[in-house]
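User: Quick one: structure for sequence A, then sequence B.

Assistant: Sequence A:
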Amino acid sequence: MNKLSRLIQLPFWRNKWTQFSLWMLMVVISVGLHMHHFNNFLIFKYSFWHTLHQLNLYVPYPDEYGDLYHYGPLFTLIIAPFAVIPSIWVAVFLWHLALAWFLWWAIQNSTLPKKNLVFMIWFTAHEMLNALGMSQFNVATVAMIILTYSAIHRNKEIWAAFWIVLGTLVKIYGIVGLAFFFFIRSKWRFSLWMVFWTIVLIALPMPFFGAEYVADQYAEWFKSLAEKGQENMLSDFQNISLLGMVRKIGYAATAGLPAYYEVFASAGKQFDATNWWVSTWSDLWLIIPAIIYSALPWLRFNQYRAHSFQLMCLALVLMIVNILSTGSENSSYIISMLGVAIWYIAVPWKRGRLDLVLLVFCFILTSLSPTDLFPGDVRYYCIRPFALKSLPVTIIWLKLVWEMCTKDYREPIRS
């Protein structure tokens, strides 16, 4: 054990270039394993060409890819440089590289203590591979949320507003950056920048694709998001959240396991519409109490100036993005795992054994459960059907809010 401890403490593991190399290795592995036949990237790629040809972005194109496009029209400009690359392998590699570098840059420029960034990089490396393996934009989403808080902490309202608006117009999740509004010193200036960036970024695709077309696509986007919420209820690979865990366990308990496994095998499409958990149960019965509970720390005005308290608010936001969203999926947990890492390291006291147990539990069940380290039957009949990947994050979220309501954070953390 002493040898292992000395090995872990070697400067090699703390070296910045070692950590950067680790993330670049995740890029290479994610492309090399060809995890999903690049379906998600094809959705992104063709969104640009569909926009260029004035086609509806939000209808199926089964000859080109599976599933549907669920991002804002603005995203088609972001993906454009990658969409025009002829080689799919080169395009995917550069896309993954851009995502990994963007999050790396956001973490390195965050207000977290530099010594703690080592833990964040290593702790989230596997979840990073998971997200990159699906070519998911979630990597950039969490980067923008972190950048939003960092800009607010440094009184750079112009950039805070920019990252919130950009994140919202691409994948709606960016709107959670508004949770840091109370930490902003010049709220009027921030509000004006919000208005400015909203106008600029909504209008940005219009010179390329036409104002009427872009406006129509925004309307189609909002419609598709509403429909997606219904489709995700009992979905296999979606609604991996507190909401999904409760609904799926409830449905299985009332319909019986064999009937539920049939629903699970059909990716949630063959459910019994008369079942109470489908016909009557509303996620709002969980969402409203959860939001009220999560908002309680914001009543502690005397803690607002404490850097560590603000970082806990960031951790809280990163966790609820998944556990309170029906759109959460396996690869979106790069967002919440970074929140868990911040929760563990960015407090002005030493974490106890219970916290360490929760951290390890979260790493094993949340990060490693989709892998072959878990027996296939356990994954297929237990973890995936009941969204148990979300359980450790939910428990840590409950503990985090309790800590924020009872602990004193007024000891500065140097960035």
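Sequence B:
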Amino acid sequence: MTVMNVSRLIPTAAVAGAVALGLTALTACSSSDAADHKNGDKLDVVASFYPMQFLAERIGGDHVSVTTLTKPGVEPHDLELSPRQIGGLTDADYILYLKGIQPAVDDAIEQSGAKDAVDAAKLTTLEKHGTEAGGDDHEHGAEGDEHGHEHGDEAGGDPHVWLDPVKYAEVAEGVGKSLEKADPDHAADYRKNTRALVTELDGLDKAFEDGLRNTATRTFITTHSAFGYLAERYGLVQEGIAGVDPEAEPSPARIDEIHTIAKKDKATTVFFETLASDRTAKTLARDTGLRTGVLDPLEGITDKSEGADYTEVMRSNLAALQKALGAK
């Protein structure tokens, strides 16, 4: 069981206070700003982090102005919001977030009472990804995760739906419909953009299905166990490093366990992510004789990302998995 790292969470009382400060600071300009947004050419959209930003920008197109609460390079789980960011939620025409990933955002939206907030987790079906084969497959809910946060809904649903192109397409369709309601004048364009994005995601799904159909092994090891949906979609087994932060050293017992799993299942690679240190992966690789590689959970795009956007990075992830799994 992972111990809750309370220092990374913003207490509800603090969020409430920040909301009050933010609302006070922006009261003088909120009415005129809101009027400008409503009467202007573009819908003022606030996205919680990159996977939501990508959807808003691709579906909204020329009709939206998107700002994100999580700047490039910031680890989304650890996000702390400024009073101005929190206050700005009340001025947005449309907010797109994913409940269960960022406690600070969830609390801020609840405290602000924003009415135009769309929870992407409700646009598809969340599943619970628990332990398998002796490893922790990123079980969410009351147990929390390696970041020390509670993730997912009350039933323990895994929120990392964007790493499955099929589920991400379901979310995209829901976002498109919600934008149509928020801005009926441009509904036809939102429908067109949604169809184009879903077609792109369908192509990505086919690439993964074909590219991972025949492999020497089905098991991959990762320091950030965010890939439960992807593993389930394409018949893979994700072995997460249980009970540790991505930047923490794995326990000797877990190193032994991973070594056993790697030998048994012919795993070759320990994957790490771009927004966290590779120290854990390198330590584990050194102690088990495995290689290291990048498998990007796509929580943010930086100059270190293996691609300029979601689709490009996902194709890089596919190539990394094909190499690690011995695709034929």
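Confidence is low (pLDDT under 50) at residues 1-39, 131-155. Residues 126 and 157 are 5 Å apart (CA to CA).

User: Thanks, that's what I needed.
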